[in-house]
Amino acid sequence: MNTIYWFQQTAYPVLAVLQLLPLAGALLTGYLRTRPFAPMIGRAVALLVLLVAIDLYRMLDKTHAALQMTEYQPLIGPFVYHAAADGVTVLFVLLAALLTFLLTLYTAARRLDAPGQLVAVILLLEAVLMSLLVTADLLWFVIVSALELGLAGYLSWRWATTPERGLALLRFYQFQGTGLLLLFAGTLMLGWHFADSAGYWSFDLADLTKVSYQGPLATVIFYLLFYGLAVRTPLFPFHGWLPLVAHRGNVAIAPAFLLGVKVGLYGLVRFVFPILPQAVEKWHAYAVAFAVAGVFYAAFLAFQQQNLRRLMAFAVVSHTSLVVIGLFSLERTALQGALLLAVNFGLAATAMLFMIGFVYNRTNTTELSRLGGLFDRIPYISIAFLASGLAIIGMPGTPGFDAAHMVLEASIERFGALLTVAAAVGNVAAAGFLLYAFQRAFLSPAPAGVDLDTIDRSKPMELLVAVLVLAVLLGTGFYSEPWMVLTDAPMQALGTHFEHTGIVSH
Questions:
Q1: What is the pTM assigned to this prediction?
Q2: What is the mean pLDDT of residues 453-460?
Q3: Which residue in 79, 59, 82 sits closest to 3, CA to CA?
Q4: How far apart are CA 315 and CA 269, in angstroms?
Q5: Could you read off the pLDDT of 325-341 as tens digits, one per residue?
Q6: Percentage of residues in the chain with pLDDT exceeding 70?
Q7: How far, in Å, CA of 185 to CA of 105, rounded?
Q8: In contact, 103 and 126? CB cutoff 8 Å
Q9: What span, in angstroms and rounded, lies between the C-alpha atoms of 476 and 407?
């Protein structure tokens, strides 16, 4: 694996800055948390991190598949600091930075309890996420994932909207703790096998890809890593934590980090696919079977939900399954489409969660039976909700349109028409329940006893958030070429691992 160090491309260690800047902002905002201007400092730091992420995109050599901007420092034994970036890394870093900045604006629009402390935790979580996304060391990825989940659980519990937050937190840690244990066990087995072959322990991606993993050992490691990341994705049937956390935790803040930044999918592409290509090829059909079942299972349950937050949870499971089908098609075009589809879902799901939060702020409910007639009072929020739902479906003009076509075309070639048509039908079902939710909440008559005149109209900060998410969704949808170019070289390199499967890499 080729390596390009940061000083060969830029005048400053940009990956270290991406990790340390939000950490410093979190410490400063937390120290000043009782001051009224503390959240403003946090928002300024989040904007600055987004600008650094854009600078990283500008400096990256997009024609090169090698890891770039490399920063390396040995620490203790096999534990090292190794940060590096390619087009896939930059795509997810941009997504994380953008969502964090939008979250800081969302907190201002919602006026939640202890805003200084909240923004400090958001920035701390961003620092952890950046470290997780730029690392090229699997052990570092696992350890930082534990920190991220701890902070996300705290966010969901501390700013929860229902008294049952303890149960939601318990279920969250039960599932995520199990996933982390599986991921850690698979990581240790990889390090042990590498030590047995090379004579020293290492969890570095460059080292682990030099060793061949065959037979039962490769199968065990693959399933440990796959199941561990499937909980994070979330993929059916490992999604049991999501509906309860979405319903009983806070409306948008923790879900935006857990569902917007697709860490589980990123982990598969960054570590599992390049380290265990033979095992991935051998067992990819089983992963696709999980995904196809998940498309219909989640869509069926979504139709039965009478709560917007639970409906969103099952929508995420259903659509994430389509991404997994694309990834495990093991073809370069499908891999690229799946990544772009994951980013589209992350953006659209976060935008929809924001709009649900604004609705909850006015009505103190997300039960569909108690909602209706909101379009006349909050038209811009309603339009942003609809546009987000259409983006999740992959309508033309949204970033999911081209990506979904890339996934489905590769799926036809790899798995045949029957499975692909089934996945497409599941996506059509998704259109049904999202449009049903929009109609019930915003267009249907208000339920008896609800006076629409008492519902506040959109506030300036809410309008700003709605306009920004619409601009991002439509801008990336109509101008998708930069993201195609960004992911083309790394996905072409990853696709070479699976060329012997008989799929032609275009």
A1: 0.91
A2: 82
A3: 82
A4: 23
A5: 888 888 888 888 888 88
A6: 97
A7: 39
A8: no
A9: 18
Distances (CA, A) of 221 to 108, 264, 272, 288: 44, 16, 9, 18
Say if residues 459 and 380 touch (Cβ distance below 8 Å). Answer: no
Packing angle, helices 87-110 and 38-59, rounded to 10: 160
Reported as a single tens digit per residue, the pLDDT across 393-411 is 777 777 777 787 788 777 7
> Where do runs of H (alpha helix) occur along 199-331?
205-208, 215-232, 241-248, 253-255, 263-267, 273-275, 277-303, 308-327
pLDDT exceeds 70 at position 504 = no
Largest CA distance in the chain: 73
Q: Average pLDDT, stretch 312-334?
A: 84
**Phi, psi values for residue 214, rounded to 5°:** -130, 160
ω before 216 within 30° of 0 (cis)?
Answer: no
Angle at 496 between CA 492 and CA 498, to 5 degrees: 120
- Tell me the sheet residues that pair with 82: 72
- Nearest 5°: CA angle at 251, between 466 and 27? 85
Distance between CA atoms of residues 35 and 12, nearest Å? 33
pLDDT of residue 430: 66
Q: Residue 501: is its pLDDT beyond 60?
A: no
**Number of neighbouring beta carbons within 10 Å of residue 303:** 12
Q: Please, is 124 exposed, middle or buried when counting C-beta atoms within 10 Å of its C-beta (0-12, 13-18, 19+)? A: buried
CA distances from 459 to 293, 453, 466, 468 (A): 42, 15, 11, 14
Q: How confident is the model at residue 2 (pLDDT cuts 50, 70, 90)?
A: low
Written as one string, the DSSP assignment of 315-352 is HHHHHHHHHHHHHTT--HHHHHHHHHHHHHHHHHHHHH
- Closest among 255, 384, 266, 364 to 311, alpha carbons compared: 255
Q: What's the Rg (C-alpha) of the chain?
A: 22
Residue in this structure with the two tokens 């322990």, named with its chain if needed = 201
The DSSP string of 164-208 is THHHHHHHHHHHHHHHHHHHHHHHHHHHHHHHHHHSS---BHHHH
Only one residue has tokens 């920063």, namely 71
DSSP state of 270: I
Nearest CA among 151, 149, 98, 424 for reference residue 264: 149
pLDDT tens per residue, range 170-226: 888 999 999 999 999 999 999 999 999 888 999 999 999 988 888 899 999 999 999
| Per-residue pLDDT, 431 | 66
